[in-house]
Amino acid sequence: MACTTILVGKKASYDGSTMVARNDDGHFDTKKVIVVNPEDQPRKYKSVIGMLEIELPDNPIGYTSAPSVDKTHGIWPAMGINKANVAMTATETITSNARVLGADPLVFPKKKENEGEEDIPGGIGEEDLVTLVLPYIKTAREGVIRLGGLLEKYGTYEMNGIAFHDENEVWWLESIGGHHWIARRVKDDEYVIMPNQFGLDRFDIEDAFGDKKENMCSSDLLEFIEKNHLDFNNNGVFNPRNIFGSHTDSDHVYNTPRAWFMGRYFNPKTYKWDGDNADFTPESDDIPWSLVPERKITPEDIKYILSSYYQGTPYNPYQKANDPRKGIYRPIGISRTGIMAITQIRPYVKDEIKAIEWLSFGSNPFNSSLPLYTNVLELPEYVSNVTLDVSTDNFFWVNRLIGVLADANYGTCIQHIERYQLSVSAKGHEIINEYDKKFNESGDVLVLEEANNKLCEMAKKEAQNTLNKVLYQASLSMKCGYSRSDN
What we know:
The protein is α+β, with helices and mostly antiparallel strands. The chain is 30% helix and 16% strand. It has 13 helices and 17 strands. The termini are far apart.
């Protein structure tokens, strides 16, 4: 999926939480968020795209999932948090190069062409990964190990990056060719920038083949590199991005500008990002994968950066100036996003309320971010009962409508959008604080479902109010408008 991801270590966040977020940028994919309880998890899984059958363990735990409403091409569960307070997001589609793909080809499925033939299954892919991994892991590290094993056994037909985190660790795994993989733990005081490009730019091989404290990989990765002459670094430093990644013209309009804007936002003084003699430009191939932010990162920072469209630069597509650079780069907040979720694991509260999932549907520049507790048996219908029919009765479609109207009337609507985003976020924090206290006093997990209902009622009211306002503003600019004073 053409997405953007950010990972935040616990010492880089405002409250000691680990956080991961990803824009799921399908082609206007209709999404909902549900709880998959153990009895609902399949014991034999068959993928739609890969046509692959996999026997699953008999001991799943419950988890949240963000499946596609249209199941034509499979589940596509996107992201979630399980009952062990482990989160996963899958996937960030990444790039590779001809040398890697020639050495370890992707495992594509093949449909039968003639009578008497059988379909030939392919490997696993984004359609499958959350379903195959998240219900069976108790730590982020276990997630890397399980997914790595599945990649080695079944292979994959696409290049992907996947994140896992628990309250202590954040891990990032990138697939290499059809069967190989590499993974690294995010340092506690760092955050990670991930557009649709192979990201890892440093890796400790000795650790990966030794204690595996912060680095893991396929058991034969070194042999694979040496046999196929893949390492062409001249300085003796093992740089996975140079070995397994890409440096194409399309990267310079689609990928590197996003990394540039994210780094520029969180580290404005660490490097020079603009003007002559800039350390990094929108088309730099060597923007660091991870950095120590200049200040602690909040959910609101993540929402802003994953909604961004190069504000304050010549590349902003909404600017009034007639600048030829306007809109030349792919924005982070894009029109076709189905869902963005910030998964947050808080270390300072009881296990039952550690996990919060901040949900945003539709185009991020114009939607809001709604926090919900995940340790529940079901989620409110406002986020879970979404159909393919446009409706104002759910959080997905109302935000899609707001986005379409506000985009075409940016100048008159943006103030309403900013107030909407601030209000939902502020009231979300307020209600979470209220129900953290209620749970601590009662110990009753049922209050979490009560909290989620209250949060959704609040979001529904705020979204409807915003839709009313942007619809009115859009109506004022209709080309068929006319009044007697016009002549």
